[in-house]
Amino acid sequence: MSAASEAIIYSKKICMLGTFGVGKTSLVRRFVHRLFDDTYLSTIGVQIYKKEIADLNSAKGRPLGVNLVIWDLANIESLTPATRTHFNGASAAIVVFDLTRPETFDLKQIHLRTFLEVNPGAQVIFVGNKTDLMAEGPDEKALVAIAGEYDAHHFLTSAKDGSNVDEMFQALAANVIS
Amino acid sequence: MTEATTIDQILKAQRLGFAVFDREHTLLDSNFKYSDFRQASDLARGKVGLWQVFPELIGYEQTIAELLAGARKPLVLEKLNQLDRTDRLQYYNLRVLALAGGTRSPARLLCLAEDVTEQTALEQEARQQRYEVQLLQSQLLNQSQFLSGALLGQSAKIQAVREFVGKVAQYNTSVLLQGESGTGKSLVARLIHRARHEGARPFVEINCAAIPETLLESELFGHEKGAFTNALASKKGLLEEADNGTLFLDEIGELPLSLQAKLLTFLETRRFRRVGSTREQSVDVRVVVATNKDLKKAIAAGEFREDLYYRINVVALTLPPIRELDDDIIQLAEHFISILQIDMKKAVHGLTAEAKRKLLSHSWPGNVRELRNIIERAMIFTTEPRITAAELWLPDTGVQDDQASDALHIPAGGLSLEELEKKYLIASLRQTGGNQSRSAELLAMSLDTFRYRLKKHGISIQAIH
């Protein structure tokens, strides 16, 4: 492969934020391993996943890719010095809400403001997860309002049936290298 | 013991793995054999960089540069986790520090990975339990929000029920709920309770027909140790459990006469005695009672005390059967779908038009309870995004809508209503696997009436089931 056509691969750290049980781990596992298991297993500490997204775009005739290092953070409700250290160096946050539990839409609990203080300029994407459980179609209002407040993209996803999961990570990847 | 062996012993005891990198972040040395932390083969392929061995340090480039410059304290990342070679979740603490270089040797980077799987597994277990409880509470809260929306519908009859709940909730008076089996008397009792008590006040429910007469008194009023054989310890009764809340006595018409007198005394004085006790106690409880029996007939038959009837009949409401609620049936059915799809984790988004028509044409002898069961059964078996008519298994009640009943055909030779009743009694028992309570519900009669009719027709459950 000539230097001109050799892919440029970036490495970017992404943090998954959201209260317990919203489906952070399920979304990552669906994206990285194509797996879903609806048994709830709480995460302790940080679970780290890696996934490369190739052929995103091209720059100066060279294909672009991104190596996403995804930090699935647990116990985000209690902000500790360790939490700030974990946020450090992230290019983006995926903020996940459970559409079936309105109380998960509380941004104070997930310390998004702190995340953005540690990583000014980081991208944020808001995700309403568990669309598969919504009878009359998901109510996007709360999600749209929060995304609008941060001038950010939002997605409705289902880790269970995979809908919009790849699209969400692809959009994020494109954003973090733009 | 050689120095190398001593270090090995220390690493093994601490389950520590290490890796050393030069200033250019190239791996110089490593030992992960006691920590299972990284596969040795990954580290033996020529020139290996820091980010390949520790992708978790991506994003910490600035921090690492400061470390190597001696400008900051070690970086500590606690409780990271990954799947090990056997797909087992492995927890580790990662400590990154600079090894100071001498005048001629530049600083190097030391990464220490300490395996903390065993300690963390315990913490994980405790947290799992706590979060599961919180998730359940959250689901209950949502169900309770569903509960508040449970008196769905626009029909005048349902609006009257809503109005009733709103009014009686303001006062701590006794309430009598009447209506056919399955019309939602228990739900209305809960709504009255919730409308009055927003907080975590007790709502205690007992079905008077479900508990043997001999136990009912001690269940309701409690007992003292030694009050009767097997009373090995004192026990609070449901009245005490319901203190500051609501006691819901379902099927009050089945309450034995002896207990009716004791209940009447309590309702009049708010005081009672546990079985075997001489000490009177008082509690602050709202009593809501329900029955599908005609209590006036029961009074005439000497089965129910008239004075108790007037005491509980301060405010009364007769709940409408759902066949009188017209299109509200569809709203109720969709409400059940929305609850069940979360419980069952199944994406079902309503009913097809044909399914709606089928629901509206049924006579619903089992009322809301029957509707819920039908929807639940359909939810289990459906593979479609909307429940279809074929998936709604409606028992042939023989009772159609008014127009259909006009078209009922009576054989030229006539038929015996007695024989017809016997057939339905047997069919209900077969359908419920011999469960008398459920059979009685299916036929919209009380358990006593059902048993009486079984006896009258000489039907043996054993022979059927």
Q: How is the topology of this model organized?
A:
The complex is a heterodimer of chains A (178) and B (465).
Chain A: E1 8-17, H1 24-33, E2 46-53, E3 58-59, E4 62-73, H2 81-87, E5 92-98, H3 107-110, H4 112-118, E6 123-129, H5 141-149, E7 153-156, H6 165-177
Parallel strand pairs in A: 1-4, 1-5, 5-6, 6-7
Antiparallel strand pairs in A: 2-4, 3-4
Chain B: H1 3-14, E1 16-21, E2 27-31, H2 40-43, H3 50-53, H4 61-68, E3 75-83, E4 89-99, E5 108-115, H5 117-148, H6 156-168, E6 175-178, H7 185-196, E7 203-207, H8 213-221, H9 238-241, E8 246-250, H10 257-269, E9 271-273, E10 280-282, E11 286-291, H11 295-300, H12 306-312, E12 315-318, H13 328-343, H14 353-361, H15 367-381, H16 402-406, H17 417-431, H18 436-442, H19 447-457, H20 461-464
Helix pairs in contact in B: 6-7, 10-12, 13-15, 17-18, 18-19
Essential attributes:
heterodimer, A: 178 residues, alpha/beta, Rossmann fold, seven-stranded mixed beta sheet, 7 strands, 28% strand, globular, B: 465 residues, Beta-Lactamase, Helicase, Ruva Protein, domain 3, five-stranded antiparallel beta sheet, 20 helices
The SSE order of chain A reads: EHEEEHEHHEHEH
CATH class of the largest domain in chain B: Alpha Beta
Largest interface: A-B, 38 and 40 residues
Number of helical segments of chain A?
A: 6
The poorly predicted ranges of chain B are 399-407
Largest sheet of chain B: 5 strands, antiparallel
> Which of globular, elongated, flat, extended, rod-shaped describes the shape of chain B?
elongated
Q: Could you give the distance between the termini of chain A?
A: 24 Å
- Main beta sheet of chain A: strand number and arrangement? 7 strands, mixed
- CA-based gyration radius of chain B: 35 Å
Quote the CATH topology of chain A: Rossmann fold
What is the helix content of chain B?
Answer: 40-55%
How many individual domains of chain A? 1
